[in-house]
Fold this sequence. Notes:
The structure holds two protein chains of two kinds. Chain A is of the alpha/beta class.
Amino acid sequence: MTTIATNPLVTVKSNSAPMRNIDPVEDLIALLARLPGYGRRSARRAVLRMLMDPQRQMLPLADALRNAAEAVLPCDVCGNLDTRSPCHICDDPQRMQGLICVVEGVADLWALERAQAHRGSYHVLGGTLSALAGIGPEDLRIQPLLARIEAGGVEEIIIALPVTVDGATTAHVLMDRLGDTGVPVTRLAQGVPIGGALDVLDDGTLAAALRARRPA
Amino acid sequence: MTMAFPALRLTRLMLRDFRSYAALDARFSGRVVVIAGENGVGKTNLLEAISLLGPGRGLRGARMGELGRDGLPWAASGRFETALGPFDIGTGTASEGGGERRAWMLDGVAKKSSTELAERVAAVWLTPQMDRLFQEGASGRRRFLDRLVWALEPAHAREVAAHDHAMASRNRVLAQGRADPGWLDALEEQMARRAVAAVAARRGLARRLNTVLAEQRPLGAFPAARLDLLCPIAAALEDSPALAVEEGLRARLAQQRRRDAAAGGAAEGAHRTDMTMVHLEKNQPAALCSTGEQKALLIATVLAHASLIAEARGFAPLLLLDEVAAHLDQRRREALFAALAALPAQSFLTGTDVGVFAPLQGVAEGFSAASGRLETIAGFGVPEPA
């Protein structure tokens, strides 16, 4: 559960070590099937395809895996995954380093980067609070965020967490902790999606959009 | 039920490997359909299949894995006639998802979810399991109530689930003794907000239902009834704005942490709502009424609910009444049949004894069910021309 702040390559090593190589193909399928988006069936299909041409499809992949595992590490500042720490975003003088967008995970950071809408930096929390999954405030990277603020230069914190019960709970706790710092805190707006028709929106989103209306 | 709405009518039902049915192709032309047969021949399964043509888990609330005959993938499809023409709905085991996922089709086109079906199909039902509604614990009544709300406000289910999630999280945090006050504050705020929203929806439903119940008096042998919520949050909403109620609940939750931790659960919240019905002529709560009177109260409620759905959707929903004649005396039975015959809604009735349905001869279409088959009961009656 608490793999958040650890280097992912450590986890990979410790998992593969105790495995007995009875059947390398089965091992490979089992390892692939653990990944998100893969089930046993799709893992088997991928492995079969690779085995058709191991020289061109497997060894380059193995090299790429090794390279990525050895080169990628979490950024000490924001928690992003990159080949260097501080990462290229935290290190970019063109970006507004005082404008910090707080996200749940690196996937959300990537989504925001794809949109090219955020010109500031990020802070990856590494999850949301979940009592049922045993993730408490101390398991999230809240302390490093407070440390960044204490170091100075932070002008605004943008909370971009999922709009679920756990996400809202996390946002609430976060705002509570940030309250003492005096830094302005904002949240992403909720409402009508771009290109979206009103009549298909659910009631909750429509009501939120109405509440968040603004002068045209 | 005051319904001047066009009715939804099921004219054909096809089943494959559903519960006790290997295969079934049944055609219905009646507005009242009677299905008679001994215990265990699959009468309720048939009603369940019909209830699954709409959104939700049907009248048994069953899981996917329970529905297939011998665990096989199952399918059910229905042809419906409406004032706006016919349409077909199919549902069953999805080809992917290991038998746990359900697929839907509308007019032969696959639909990702059942939301579109909700606009086309609606059904209300009464089953023998509900006979004990007023004797069993509050949770059964709360589920009954929530299902009534949910049929009219699909977002209600999400609100209740969010409340329960926040509450379970709070219980866990309290139990672990890792009482981070900020975390608990956040969970209590979520819980209070969702609780008030959920209870407000329940309260709204109770009001609308009571309005219809009050108008429904001419149903003869059916008692005039009122549905009362037993819920401090609902009571608070009577004289305070929702935001104030929310704030009050949040503050009380914060005060009661120690007590809730010791008790292993929250003393207040949307999970504590209970309801009762009052037999108005006797001024008696349902729990003190006779079994037959309780059944009559439930029938009145279900019919009132059907007319609320008709108002909201613009068509009268299907009425699925399982073993409905049980516990009713002859006077009430005849009053029920007369009421059903006068409604625009299509109703499906089951019973073990075909003789009970004798007053419906000439009005209803009769079938006898026997081990996975349906056969027309000769001479039971010719359905009125459409």
